[in-house]
Amino acid sequence: MTIDERLEALTHNVELIALAQKDSSNSLTVSNGIVLRLEKKVEDIAEIMQELATTQLALQKTVDQLAGRMDQLAGAQVATELKLQAFIDSLRKGGNGHA
Q1: Rg for the chain (alpha carbons), in Å?
Q2: pTM above 0.70, yes or no
């Protein structure tokens, strides 16, 4: 192999290496872009999860308040039923002390 042939082969190898590095650099740039988009999506998901947790706490507080009010309503209903039954019983006995 002559010196010119060797130089031509080396030049060709250097060109191939340069192309490979360019392709590698492009791939790295694309990969970095993908990573940045994924990081943004992860941040968005974390924010949504925080909002969800806040909403769940507010919902639980509302449910607890409603449960308390339902207990009050149930107690008032029992008292009303007792008064109504006493009224009905008093009508059965007659009015003004008459049986």
Answers
A1: 42
A2: no
